[in-house]
């Protein structure tokens, strides 16, 4: 079953085409990464899924159904700007999330509080950007929601916290709690934990696949190598990313596939 199916999603804002027929699917139990340059349309896509931005056309199915307010209890969304309500404390957020999400995991959340020494009486706005990012992600993972959507989840995190969040993300999926869709610029770290990806540029999907399949279908070859009719995606310095399943060159890393398609 698909946790998400995005079909031909299009959106204009102020007469500018922001998304053009965006299509990709996220299988249940995947960690799907939406990658692309600044202004590519990642956040707008995530907001359309959450119905925070109204689509112009196309179809978005969440667990095989169009968006309906009742699905919100099954989705936890961490937005890009980590906006928090003024004067609300971490304790207020805790109570709010616990009320909104029926499968709330109190043990997980309390363990996090004691491990990092966060105080429930602290106002959310007083936390640093990185602390807010981490706290909002932990609140999301404490929901036990079937779908977690994270806009640039590791941005502003220190290396230790970043590592911890990646481990938590992998564990969530390994424990079969849900599916993750995230957007990210961190193309070097994604290979550690994502299972599938979609590359978006200028509001268009350039390529989408599982990471394993994408590696099977591409090779990195040197400039003078015989590419045996393979399709050239991009020349990157003195290497070439090609699409082929022939026994040539080397299997690419995820970041090479992403950079190649963005250059194509
Ligand atoms: N409310 C808005 N009004 C006008 N333009 C907007 C609005 N929201 C988004 N855009 C435009 O839509 C385009 C895509 O923005 P979006 O935030 O979706 O990109 P992104 O891929 O998430 O970028 P980044 O990686 O920089 O966060 C940009 O050109 C942006 O200026």
From TrEMBL:
UniProt xrefs under Gene3D superfamilies: P-loop containing nucleotide triphosphate hydrolases
Domain of life: Bacteria
Pfam families to which the protein is assigned, alphabetical: ABC_tran
The ABC transporter domain, residue ranges: 4-227
GO molecular function, one term: ATP hydrolysis activity
Keyword annotations: ATP-binding, Nucleotide-binding, Transport
Alphabetical list of SMART domains matching this protein: AAA
Full protein name: ABC-2 type transport system ATP-binding protein
């Amino acid at each position: 079953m698909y946790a998400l199916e995005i079909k031909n999603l299009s959106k204009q804002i102020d007469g500018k085409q922001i998304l053009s027929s965006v299509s990709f699917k996220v299988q249940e139990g995947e960690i799907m990464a939406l990658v692309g340059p600044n202004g590519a349309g990642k956040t707008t896509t995530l907001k359309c899924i959450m119905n925070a931005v109204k689509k112009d056309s196309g179809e978005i199915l969440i667990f095989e159904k169009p968006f309906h307010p009742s699905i919100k209890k099954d989705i936890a969304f961490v937005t890009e700007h980590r906006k928090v309500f003024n004067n609300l404390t971490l304790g207020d957020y805790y109570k709010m999330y616990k009320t909104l999400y029926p499968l709330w995991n109190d043990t997980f959340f309390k363990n996090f509080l004691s491990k990092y020494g966060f105080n429930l009486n602290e106002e959310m706005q007083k936390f640093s950007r990185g602390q807010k990012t981490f706290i909002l992600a932990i609140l999301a993972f404490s929901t036990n929601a079937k779908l977690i959507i994270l806009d640039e989840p590791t941005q502003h995190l220190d290396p230790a916290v970043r590592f911890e969040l990646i481990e938590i993300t992998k564990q969530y999926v390994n424990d079969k709690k849900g599916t993750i869709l995230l957007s990210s610029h961190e193309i070097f770290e994604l290979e550690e934990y994502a299972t599938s990806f979609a590359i978006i540029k200028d509001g268009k999907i350039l390529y989408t696949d599982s990471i394993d399949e994408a590696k099977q279908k591409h090779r990195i070859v040197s400039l003078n190598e015989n590419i045996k009719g393979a399709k050239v995606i991009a020349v990157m310095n003195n290497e070439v990313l090609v699409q082929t399943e022939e026994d040539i060159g080397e299997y690419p890393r995820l970041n090479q596939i992403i950079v190649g398609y963005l250059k194509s």
